[in-house]
Amino acid sequence: LLVSKDLGKHLLEVEDLLQKQSLLEADISAQTERVQALNAAALKFSELEGYQPCDPQVICNRVSHVRSCLEELRELAGARRRDLEASRQLWAFLQELEEAEAWMREKEQILASKGCGRDLGSALALSGQHRTMLGELGGRRALLHQALQRGERLQALQRGGGSAAAAGAAAGRLRQRLREVRQRWKKLEELTGLHQRRLRRALAFYQFAADADDLAAWLQDLYRLASSDDFGHDDHSSLALLRQHRGLLQQLEKQRGAVLALREQVASLTASAGGRCSSPGPGSETRGAETAAAVDVQIRVVEVEQLYGEVVEVALLRQQWLQDALAVYKMFGEVHACEVWVEEKEQWLRGMEVPEELDEVEVVQHRW
């Protein structure tokens, strides 16, 4: 039982063997007291004087042999215990690696199934989930580093303990598992980094689309203002409207650079659309949806450019109309002033009387 090479093929089996070993060691402890009592009784026969049923040297040799056999049994039990403890440590560590690898496979499946959203809101939500996963990876990274260091130490212990064949096999198995776990962790980090880059590009893409929509909505509002048929009812109201309209033109001019930059931005975004958010698997449907979204954004940019041109055209036309209306109302004011002046002169001429005094006649004549 003690020279058996069976150290278990998994953790539960090793635990079972350790329980059996404990029972065997308890049996050895119980038999030790019995052997010591028998040896003590046998030695008494070697001390007899007179008649001796057996040669005392034979008795001493026999007692010594029994003691050496018992000591060998204890040594075998200790070696067996150490081998089983090392085996349990090995299988417990391998189980820990298996659990870590299962966690990695789960995260790989999650990354493979995740897209990058259909709009800005869903992309932001997925980015939040990805940040949570990055936090989990950070915690796991430290734990895995510690586990791998323990694995290296355990590998050295396996090479130095037990039988050469068993130790070599255990060390080889452990070395292979450590290499597999490192490779899978490296793959997981690569997939995580790739998904993060895709999410960033998707966020930039959807943010661009949202900004383009906001710009289009703003231009629609300006178009409604620029196409108003309110030109005022007098020179004061027309002048106020013209000042407001000049502010509108200034806003349009400020946005000219942003509108002109849209085409360059969408070109840089669509250039990376092929790798923007496709999953590690086939993902043909996802890529098709992304391509359609890219085309929609390009169409949207063209619409924004056309809308901007229309708003500028309408705004310039309204500015001319407001200037014309202001000129008309100014002319109306001047005409009204002339009419008032003429009426005053008509009233004065109709009411003019020739004075009888010379001095007053000269004054009237001067006015005339």
Automatic annotation (TrEMBL):
SUPFAM superfamilies, per the entry: Spectrin repeat
Pfam families according to UniProt: Spectrin
Q: Which domain of life is it from?
A: Eukaryota
Indicate the secretion signal residues: none
Q: Which InterPro entries does the record cross-reference, listed alphabetically? A: Spectrin/alpha-actinin (IPR018159), Spectrin_repeat (IPR002017)
The molecular function terms of the Gene Ontology recorded here are:
actin binding
Alphabetic keyword roster: Actin-binding, Repeat
Name listed for the protein in its UniProt record: SPTN4 protein
Q: What is the lineage of its organism?
A: Eukaryota, Metazoa, Chordata, Craniata, Vertebrata
